[in-house]
Design a protein that fits this description.
Strand content: under 5%
Radius of gyration: 18 Å
Number of helices: 3
Structural class: mainly alpha
Distance between the termini: 53 Å
Shape: elongated
Length: 61
């Protein structure tokens, strides 16, 4: 069985991985995450997320 060359995989996907991780941090702001954590039910979380994204979509259109 041939082992994968980890060094070449790191070079090949390193840039993409860094970009995705950087963009992932922009999805939700820390203050909003704190607010989301304080919510007591899943339904309330869904409602909060829907309002959060709805506002941003309206701003962009």
């Amino acid at each position: 069985m041939k082992l994968p060359n980890i060094e070449s995989r790191a070079l090949k996907y390193g840039y993409s991985n860094a970009r995705v991780r950087g963009m992932k941090g922009l999805l939700l702001k820390p203050a909003f995450l704190d607010e989301l954590i304080k919510v007591r039910s899943i339904d309330a979380m869904v409602e909060l997320l829907q309002s959060y994204y709805k506002e941003r979509i309206i701003k962009k259109s």
